[in-house]
Amino acid sequence: MPFDGSDLYQLANWLGLPPLERVAAGAGVISVLQISVYQSERTLRHSVARVSEYQTGEVELLLAYEGISLKRSIRRAVESERMERLQAVLLKARFDKLGDQASLSRNESLLWLIERAAGSHRHGIIIAPDRPELPWSAIVNAIDAYLPEAIRRVPLRT
Q1: Per-residue pLDDT tens for 139-154?
Q2: Residue 117's Cα: distance from chain center in Å?
Q3: How far apart are CA 123 and CA 31, in angstroms?
Q4: What is the distance between the alpha carbons of residues 11 and 13, in angstroms, rounded to a whole number?
Q5: Which of 35, 49, 51, 119 is 20 to 30 A away from residue 139, measured at CA?
């Protein structure tokens, strides 16, 4: 069976986050960027980082990790300049028209689902950040540079 990324698409739901479409359609929300990180190495937690941009100019990051209650999730403000730089890279990479990285499988050590939503529009791509192929590598590098806390690896304690 070909890889379809269904586990990645369900990760936010499994962690108890409200649907991306509902958040993007919320009052005062301009856009939402969500990065779901699927760790095949089971010593690390799966995670979802959700960045919401508001009409007030505020940018909020919500981090949710596998096995940690949403009540203990991390919320923090993000400088709008960092998001502007990240959005510029997404635009240059033609994110909204970009498809998944080629030849992905469940055997990848790390997979990211990057989704962007605004109003009723939603687009997502799945990438293997350990494989440096353009244009996906430009997106990986931008997330690493402008939003490193979104991809922080957290140990899974047994």
Answers
A1: 999 999 999 999 988 8
A2: 11
A3: 12
A4: 5
A5: 119
